[in-house]
Structures are given as C-alpha cells and as structure tokens.
Amino acid sequence: MKAILKLFTVMSLFLTFSCQDDDATLESVAVPQNLTVSTDITTDGSGNVTFTATADNAITYRFIFPDGSSDVAPSGVYTKRFTKTGLNTYTVTVIAYGQAGVSTSQLIEIEVESDFSDLDAIELLTGYNPASGSPSTKTWYWAADVPNHLGVGPNNDDLSQNYFWAFFSFTDPFALNFDAASCAYDDEFIFSTTNGENLNYLYDNNGATFFNRSYASVAGGTSPDDQCYEFDTTSGGTQTVTLGPSESVVAPERKRGTVMTFNDGGFMGYYIGTTRYEILSITENRMVTRAIQGNDDFLAWYQIFTSTKPVQNTGPVAEEDNFPNLLWSDEFDTDGAPSAANWTYDIGVGQAGWGNNEEQYYTDRPENVIVEDGMLKITAKREEFNGQPFTSARIKSEGLQEFTFGRVEVRAKLPTGVGTWPAIWMLGADYQTNAWPAAGEIDIMEHVGREQNTVFSTLHFPENFGANGVSESTTVPTASTEFHVYATEWTETQIRFYVDDELYHIFENDSSKPYDKDFFVILNVAMGGNFGGAVDAGFQESSMEVDYVRVYQRD
C-alpha cells in the first residue's frame, strides 16, 4: 500500500472586502503553510483509510474524493471507506483553510484494496437492472402503515435486545400523524445509480424534518420535545453513499452485514446526528435500518421504509343511502310553547345534576323555552331558582315521536359564553328499564363555550361511555352567529354525522350495539358540569335557536 504526493502544494486566496471595515490585506491574513497529509490504510480488505492533515495557520480541512463525495474535518482527521472491489488507485484532494477563506491544497494518490461488495443492496435500493445496464432511480418512504416504523432500543451486548426497538416504538400505523411530527410522512428518500456500482442519494423532506429533541438547535429550534422544523436538505443536490461491512453488536444472523455511510451530513428522515445506517434487512419494497444516535451511543434507532408510498385509511367509507320519506318534523311556525304533539319537558335538576354535575334548573317557563318568529328558543339564564344559579330548558320527543333508523336534521344557531353546553341528541326509548349507557345515546351535536366553534358528535354504549364515548369533532367558525344544519344518518350498519352536509364522523354499527331500536330526540342547553366546565362570572344569558327538526326514513 502506498500514498504518493503527486502535485506541488498550491495556494488560493478568497477575500471579502467591506467599504466600511478596515481593508483585509494579504499581509494581515495568515495563509496555511506546510500542509502535510499522512494516511493509515488498513490491510484487512475493509477499504478503510484514515487521513491525518496538518498545516500551520489552518482552522479546518476538507477532503474531496473521486466518487464525488467530500467532507469537512476541523481536526484534520477523517476516515473514508473505499468500496470498489479489488486493488484500486484513488486521487484525493486535501484542502487546508485559514481565516478569511485562504487555503492551501494537496493532491495525493493512494492504492486501496477492498474485498467488500454488496451489489445486491445497490440493486434493491435503486431498482437497478444489471441486464439493461441503464441508470436507475428508486424512491423510498416511511413505512407509515406498519407498526413500529420508528423505535429505539439499547446499543449494547445484550443479544436479546440489541436488534430491535426494545425501549419504545410507535406501535400504531401512521402514529406520527400529530402536529409535532406531521412532516415526517412527507419525506422521500431517493437512491440512484448510473452503473450498479456507485450509489447516490437525495433526501427530499418537502421543507421540514422531524428532529430528535437533543438536536433541535441544529435547526434553530428550542422545543424540549421531538419536533418538525424547517430544514433544507435539497439545495446541495445529491450526496454519495458508500456501502461497507457492519461492525455493530447485532448478532450476524439478525443483520445483513451492510452499512450505508452518507457523505456531507446526509441522513434518513429522523435527525439523530448520524450519517451511518446499518441495513438489517432489505427486499424490493421493505428496508429496516439501525442507526446509533450521534450524541448517545447507548441508543440505537430503528426505522422501517417502503418503496410504495403508504396511503392512510381515513376511516370507514360512507355507505350510499337515500332517505326520501319525511317521517315527522317540527318547523316551529306557531308562536307560544313548543307543540305538545312533538315535545314534552324534563323539569328540575335530575340526579346529580343530570348525571353530569350540571348547574341549571330546567323549567317549562317561556323565559327559558318559547317558539317565536319561526324559531324555537331555549335560553339559559343566570338567576337563582330552586337552589340553582341558572335556569334553562330541556325538551324531548319521548313517547310522542320515537323511531328506529333514519336521517335526523336540526338547523340551529348555538349560544355563546364560557360554561354553556348546548346539545342536540337522542336517547334509547327503553332507558327507564334498560339504564344508561345500555340504552344507548347518540349525540348529534354538542358544543361547549370554552371551545367556541368546535362541535362534537359522540356515541355512548356499554363498552364506551362517559369520557370514553366514541367521539369526533369539527370546526364550525360561525357556530354562534349563523344557522347550520346538524345531521345524523342512522342505519343498521353505520351512524354518520354531518355539518351542512359535510361528513366528518362515521361509526360502524352492528347488532352488538344498542342502536337497533327506537330512540327519541332531545334539545337542551346545560350550564357548567363535567363537560361544560366552569361558568364565566360575567355570563348572564344566551340562547340556542332552532329553525326546524326533521326526521326522514328510507323507502
């Protein structure tokens, strides 16, 4: 093995002048001098070469390699693995930089022997076909649709744990779909080759990368948690990847034996301060990698990638249904009390504030419930009444208008005020003999003043009730200033929830749930309680206005 000095040392000068500052001059800049480069070339066939560069007045060094890769080493010490099989000659450029950009460089020629080769990995990474010999490119993605696509475990000699995410993993598919990590699934990892031997890489993060919290400062962040940050990964163009033999603690039978090393700070998606990723396994459409965190060599991170971009199943698909037949309705076009043919009242405080620690006393007084100007108005008021600080109303179609399955539409404008809790909902008609939650509850719309303009739809039944009800929410920016149509479509197989005909919640119904029998409609405005929360001290009164209630059924 040999290292031969091929060219004389040359010096270049790059100076930036300012018309306001003192002029920089050649005499004031210390040019790097006496650049020397030594090499330590391994003889084990691994292809590893350690370069040690020294120069007077140098503050950093850059090594440029014939495969197009380069890297900076302020210490002047840098190890490179040359992967071309056999004994090969390489010309390496070493540049010593001083202050103000002055530099001195050398070209050296080395002979390196490498007996490591994993052409199959290059073919799998890039889709290269040796028969055609054409350049090839292949894009990989997070395998977001499979469990454990990101996890962490120990990097130690415990063979029972050091090959998988023994400490923690995101067990659910698409588990990173939360605000702090939402950028991750936009990542594209693009591998390419021109001849089946070289390997190039471009990481397109679409503008943002998911960072380990200990590296937030790299992106200018300060969050104490893992976080997506804006980060440029594409302006530098493609990077070179070299393949080498694995030297990890993982048992041979649990790994492929190949490590990818990315030049120029390249990495794969989750920023943990490393450029080396061991390939534990790879097929045409699946790759599992292991990487050691740069600032904590006790932690090994695992990622799973796929060459087919996963598409998240957003939930069950709405069934096509038609509800042409009007079963009953109330248009609230007769002033006075609500129609006795459709509505009756709940009066009082119920048991334990209607089971929710609510603070109102329900009445049938016109001050709290009245039909006027073509609208039903339910008004919650601050007033001492029968020991309660508020009054309101709750009307129901129990015993008058009960039905099984159909489409329920209620056009309403909601009250305002922190502590208000209006609701449009249905209860199983057998609740007196089949106590809640066994009777079943369908909340078509709930709103709380402390979360203004967010409406909720929820189902309560024996397996899921109270705070564990099956719930979804959506934003209605004008919930309290404009009328909106809140609707549910209820069938033997689905219960679907809409606002202004926009579907936002689907529940899969079946015979094991209590939604195959008569229910009735309830309209009310509660105050405070478990969901409504503390009432604003300045609250005086506010109303829910209802334009109509309509129930349709299928043919």
TrEMBL record:
Signal sequence extent: 1-21
Organism: Leeuwenhoekiella nanhaiensis
PANTHER family linked to this entry: GLYCOSIDE HYDROLASE FAMILY 16 PROTEIN (PTHR10963:SF55), GLYCOSYL HYDROLASE-RELATED (PTHR10963)
Domain of life: Bacteria
A Pfam family: Glyco_hydro_16
Keyword Signal attributed: yes
Family membership noted in the UniProt record: Belongs to the glycosyl hydrolase 16 family.
Keywords linked to the UniProt accession: Signal
The protein, known as: Laminarinase
Residue ranges crossing the lipid bilayer per the database entry: none
Molecular function as annotated in GO: hydrolase activity, hydrolyzing O-glycosyl compounds
Xref: InterPro entries: Beta-glucanase-like, ConA-like_dom_sf, Glycosyl_Hydrlase_16, Ig-like_fold, PKD/Chitinase_dom, PKD_dom_sf
Biological process terms in GO annotation: carbohydrate metabolic process
Sequence ranges assigned to domain GH16 in this UniProt record: 299-555
